[in-house]
């Protein structure tokens, strides 16, 4: 009954020095919803990009519906019946629903775009999916986000896709919309379409898929039915080692005056109220899900976004409002952005330039940079976090994600800030780099730095922090010792109304 | 290839292009000794001065991921201004300083419009292209301004006095300024910050760089060079013409781009831009010596601009 829709075997993909995929395999049958799980940086998105024709594999074989498949372009992928539904919706807000649905396969009459046929086809698909209320002639930008997702899926259906690839489709959705999406996915599968579903949320994955494949470091390490497989088994397959070994042992922070204290921080609409204090030598964890306002809170403290409230640093009180990054840096605060490529680093510049950028004055005399000194200082800072690069003169762009993040952290260490605001410092990097970053954070705390560690990954906070505060819907809870939190209590605080 | 070697190869690509142009015309004209004679080099270099000075300023702007379209108009305005001041009996030094300063002020206004009013550089400087040209025509009464003969007239002549200078004083001024600005961009805190700004404005901001102030500095600094180019323009024509240098900004941008500058910012260098300016000048001169009509050189230069950027793209893809 179940014929294979998609078969991937031994796919390898290299980006410069990084081996993103190192023998990835995947088998999906017609009408099956298959969960592809793995940590950030495990290679899931790379594999999907290869399947969707956005990247070319260096080695390995792929079959679709029994025939060999080797797409060079997204167009080849579509013609073979592969549709990708991306993390961020890839729709065009200025076009109508119908234009979005038929895009790339526009019905034509005598060489002209056939408006009636495209609207008719769109209406057909929308009805089939139980959404006749969506008007094919409406401009997409005028629809609510939930309706847009319907349109996105209808586009896959209209292209008669054999295999639909979904990359974290629920990351921007509220729970009712998630349920509705699952309804759509089940209907899609019932019509014989194979679905490859990527998500971080294991529980969610179980709701919609029957089988799974775990990717780790670019390799398929486990596959089977989800029934009868525990979350612990999945997690240890994802992580590949005992979680305990990952976090360095730390001395408990001593009592003392806070290095940074923030009171009544607000940055509407994302941040409604947040107060916290962090002492020298302490790692304060801030846990929160996406959209909880944690990033916005940190940005407001650092002067990158407007906010109100007061902060106390260097023994002096001052308003949050009107702060600039320049001022905060002078006050001894350092900031690591969650957006590594956009805000954390200047990718075309060298490792040395990036590491020394904040405090370039330290390797310059009368405004003239001494390249030898710059190089030496960059090498020293890079070494403390274990940056792997042939030379600090190498452009940051050529490094792997994990090494890029280490460069970003090295910049803060070179800045010699007393207070480090770290927003998702380990997102999207390999497990080895994570361990090195945890060690660097622990070492910085041991040297008396005050650290605010923002993350949506609770285990790392539980493993590394002295105290943890939880952010939910713009409000930050009181910080409590890490030992007093359990995964359940933290999650409850994060989703509490 | 090691990164250092690759960087060197990238920097040498425009030089190779320049040598190719020179070689082709030296052979094609059938008289390499004439094409490469001191006299012809004098002509080419003197013709290059204005674009070269403009390209020095434009390199800083383009590296910062900006653009300045008002170069031609600024040259006309500052040229006219210096001619008027000379006519009014001001000493040449004062006229020169005022013109350079005026260019700087035009750039400052560009920078303020871009940062304070949040207008993208293309539009902000497009507006200034019109405003500066209009002001030039206004202050000159819409006609050429004839200054008395001073040493400014000798700045950009083809054959200099004293003759031991070999090339016009303006050529040497451009050479020295190019060397200074190459150093400033590569080796000073200001220069490295301009590169950071052009690579990623968000990252520069997060590093505590006052990006708005830096942008204003960049446009004002570039304006000083456009002002100096205006004086050279006046010197070559020996009059202040409010309609001169229309479209020079495109030559200047082309020089920077041929020399390895990227309009996405974060890449480029003054020496590359100088090579780009020279390549275009040799090409113009070569086609003239071949007796080819004007349109041929326009077509060739257009093709070379696109070709240079395409080669650059190929290089980027390979890494």
Q: Would you summarize the structure shown here?
A:
Chain A is an alpha/beta fold and 497 residues long.
Please, could you describe this protein's structure?
The complex is a heterodimer of chains A (497) and B (319). With 497 residues, chain A is of the alpha/beta class. Helix content of chain A is 34%, strand content 26%. In chain A, the strands form 6 sheets. In chain A, strands 15, 18, 21, 22, 23, 24 and 25 form a 7-stranded mixed beta sheet that branches. In chain A, strands 6-9-10-3-11-12 form a 6-stranded mixed beta sheet, with helices on both faces. A 4-stranded antiparallel beta sheet of chain A has the order 2-1-4-5, with helices on one face. The longest helix of chain A is centred in the middle third of the chain and has 16 residues, at 175-190. Chain A is globular. Chain A starts with a strand and ends with a helix. In chain B, helix 4 runs antiparallel to helix 5 (92-116). Chain B has a single domain, classed as ABC transporter involved in vitamin B12 uptake, BtuC. By secondary structure, chain B is mostly helical. Chain A binds chain B through residues 16, 302, 304, 324-326, 328-330, 335, 337, 339, 342-349, 353, 357-358, 360-361, 364, 367-369, 371, 390-391, 393-395, 398, 411, and chain B through 2-4, 187-193, 195-196, 199-200, 202-210, 266-267, 319.
- Per DSSP, what share of the residues of chain B sits in E-state strands of 2 or more residues? under 5%
Helix content of chain A: 25-40%
Q: What is the CATH homologous superfamily assignment of the largest domain in chain A?
A: P-loop containing nucleotide triphosphate hydrolases
Structural class of chain B: mainly alpha
Mean pLDDT of chain B: 91
Oligomer: heterodimer
How would you sum up the major sheet of chain A?
7 strands, mixed
Number of strands of chain B: 0
The fraction of residues in strands of chain A falls at: 25-35%
Gross morphology of chain B is globular
């Amino acid at each position: 009954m179940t014929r294979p829709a998609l078969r991937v075997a031994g796919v390898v993909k290299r980006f410069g020095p990084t081996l993103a995929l190192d023998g990835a395999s995947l088998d999906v049958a017609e009408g099956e919803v298959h969960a592809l799980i793995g940590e950030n940086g495990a290679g899931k998105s790379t594999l999907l990009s290869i399947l969707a024709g956005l990247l070319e594999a260096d080695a390995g074989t792929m079959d679709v519906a029994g025939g060999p498949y080797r797409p060079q372009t997204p167009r080849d992928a579509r013609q073979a019946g592969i549709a990708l539904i991306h993390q961020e919706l890839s729709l065009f807000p200025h076009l109508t629903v119908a234009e979005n649905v038929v895009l790339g396969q526009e019905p034509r009459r005598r060489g002209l775009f056939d408006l009636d046929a495209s609207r008719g086809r769109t209406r057909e698909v929308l009805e089939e999916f139980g959404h006749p209320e969506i008007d094919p002639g409406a401009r997409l930008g005028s629809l609510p986000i939930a309706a847009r997702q319907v349109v996105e899926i209808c586009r896959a259906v209209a292209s008669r896709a054999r295999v639909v690839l979904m990359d974290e489709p629920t990351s921007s959705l509220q729970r009712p919309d998630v349920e509705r999406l699952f309804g759509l996915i089940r209907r899609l599968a019932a019509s014989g379409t194979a679905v490859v579903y990527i998500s971080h949320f294991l529980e969610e994955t179980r709701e919609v898929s029957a089988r799974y494949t775990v990717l780790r470091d670019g390799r398929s390490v486990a596959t089977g039915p989800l029934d009868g497989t525990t979350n612990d088994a999945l997690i240890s397959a994802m992580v590949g080692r005992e979680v305990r070994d990952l976090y360095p042992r730390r001395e408990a922070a001593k009592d003392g005056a806070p290095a940074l204290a923030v009171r009544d921080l607000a940055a509407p609409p994302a941040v409604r109220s947040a107060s916290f204090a962090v002492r020298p030598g302490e790692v304060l964890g801030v846990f929160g899900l996406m959209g909880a306002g944690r990033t916005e809170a940190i940005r407001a403290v650092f002067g990158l976004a407007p906010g109100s409230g007061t902060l106390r640093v260097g023994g002096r009180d001052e308003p949050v409002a009107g702060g600039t990054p320049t001022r905060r840096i002078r006050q001894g605060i350092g900031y690591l952005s969650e957006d590594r490529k956009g805000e954390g680093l200047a990718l075309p510049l060298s490792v040395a330039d990036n590491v020394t950028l904040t405090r370039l004055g330290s390797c310059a005399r009368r405004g003239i940079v001494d390249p030898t000194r710059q190089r030496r200082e960059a090498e020293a800072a890079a070494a403390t976090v274990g940056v792997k690069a042939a030379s600090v003169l190498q452009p940051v762009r050529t490094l792997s994600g994990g090494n890029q993040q280490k460069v970003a952290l090295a910049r803060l260490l070179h800045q010699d800030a007393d207070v480090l605001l770290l927003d998702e410092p380990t997102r999207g990097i390999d497990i080895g780099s994570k361990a090195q970053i945890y060690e660097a954070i622990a070492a910085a705390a041991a040297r008396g730095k005050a650290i605010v560690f923002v993350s949506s990954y609770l285990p790392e906070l539980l493993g590394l922090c002295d105290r943890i505060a939880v952010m939910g819907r713009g409000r930050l809870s009181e910080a409590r010792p890490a030992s007093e939190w359990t995964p359940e209590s933290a999650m409850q605080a994060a989703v509490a109304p | 290839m090691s990164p250092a070697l690759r960087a060197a190869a990238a920097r040498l690509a425009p030089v190779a292009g320049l040598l190719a142009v020179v070689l082709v015309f030296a052979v094609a004209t059938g008289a390499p000794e004439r094409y490469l004679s001191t006299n012809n080099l004098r002509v080419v270099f003197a013709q290059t001065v204005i674009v070269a000075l403009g390209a020095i300023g434009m390199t800083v702007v383009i590296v910062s991921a900006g653009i300045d379209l008002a170069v031609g108009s600024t040259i006309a305005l500052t040229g006219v201004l210096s001619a008027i001041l000379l006519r009014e009996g001001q000493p040449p030094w004062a006229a020169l300083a005022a013109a350079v300063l005026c260019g700087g002020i035009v750039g400052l206004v560009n920078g303020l419009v871009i940062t304070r009013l949040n207008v993208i550089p293309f539009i902000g400087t497009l507006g200034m292209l019109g405003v500066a040209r209009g002001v030039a025509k206004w202050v000159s009464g819409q006609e050429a301004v004839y200054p008395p003969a001073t040493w400014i007239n000798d700045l950009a002549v083809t054959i200099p006095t004293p003759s031991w200078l070999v090339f016009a004083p303006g050529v040497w001024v451009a050479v020295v300024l190019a060397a200074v600005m190459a150093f400033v961009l590569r080796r000073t805190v200001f220069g490295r910050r301009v590169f950071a700004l052009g690579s990623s404005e968000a990252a520069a901001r997060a590093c505590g760089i006052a990006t708005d102030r830096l942008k204003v500095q960049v446009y004002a600094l570039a304006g000083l060079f456009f002002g100096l180019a205006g004086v050279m323009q006046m010197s070559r024509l020996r009059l202040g013409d409010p309609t001169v240098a229309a479209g020079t900004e495109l030559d200047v941008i082309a020089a920077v781009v041929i020399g390895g500058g990227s309009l996405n910012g974060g890449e480029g260098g003054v020496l590359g831009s100088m090579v780009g300016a020279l390549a275009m000048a040799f090409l113009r001169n070569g086609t003239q010596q071949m007796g080819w009509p004007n349109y041929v050189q326009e077509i060739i230069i257009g093709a070379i601009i696109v070709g240079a950027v395409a080669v650059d793209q190929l290089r980027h893809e390979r890494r």
